[in-house]
Amino acid sequence: MSASETESKSEENPLRPNMFAKDMDAVSSTFDNIDFGHSIFRTPLFRSTLFLNSNLSGAAFQGGNLEGVNIQRCNLRGAQIQNCEVEGLVVNGVNVGDLIQLLTRTGTSSV
């Protein structure tokens, strides 16, 4: 493939994931010092999984189960959680799931 053909392909698909994982089963796993940057996880099973010192910047989780996942000492700046079940979600000791449910019920937020 010529350089111009490669460049054309890159323009058609600007997303260049580090890894694409579909239907990945990593239940009760530990990932330590792994570069998952810009990876796409479609319908993964990460239930009760621990991520230590790993790069998830720009990663996308689409569907799947992350119940019981433990995230510690991580930079979550700019992270977005959309259309997800958040019952029991705790951030820094605060049950955010309950707060979201309360705000949604009272109409205080458009969560």
TrEMBL record:
It comes from the Bacteria. InterPro entries: 5peptide_repeat (IPR001646). Pfam families: Pentapeptide. This is Pentapeptide repeat-containing protein.
